[in-house]
Amino acid sequence: MSTAEYKVKLEAFEGPLALLMHLIDKNQVDIYDIPIAVVTEQYLDYIRAMEQFNIDVASEFLVMAATLLQIKSRMLLPKPPAAEQLAEEVDPRQELVQRLLEYRRFKQAAADLEEMLRKREQFIARPPGYFATKIVLPEGLKLDDLIEAFAAVWESAVDEFAFIAREEISVQDKMQDILLLLRKQGGRLEFAQTLIRSGSRTEMVTAFLALLELIRLKRIHIEQERSFGPIYLSLGEVVH
Known about the structure:
disordered N terminus, 3-stranded antiparallel sheet
């Protein structure tokens, strides 16, 4: 495998700009006023440490090291006289600062996209549905026709409701029903056969209360062969 095909990727610094930005953040300095001497020395220390651990330093790291040394050298050169300085005064760090600012923007954009991807992975999208039925709108309609049709529908709309009369069944009436039915049926019948009025829930509850009252008065007996099975009623002793 040739050297060009073998590339080392550092988890902490994927490129020289990442390492340089780390040093700027570490020293807590203004990115527009980088202490180039200090940052260059720290940058070179990282490069030497990578070489000591037998890590092949990528060429871009070395190019950045050369750039830092060049900037450092330009800043150490004596400045031109004041008259010439006005025309040629350009900060040697300016290009590097622009590259660092651009790197910071792309890094922030990458972080934002990663956050959006993380949130998007929590949803499952469904493809849009297909509706075969197509509603063909009538042709030749005018706005007045639509308003007139809407007004007709609005005026013809009637609230759909009805009054429900309250069902009045007393326990006494139901007791009489049960006794009368028992006599007609030969003294024995099933509880469900006592629901002879509306068969509503009200009648069922009233019939059950009447059944309990008749048992208390010993007017009837009840039998049930199994749990939740039919309940059979039979006439009991007559109390005068």
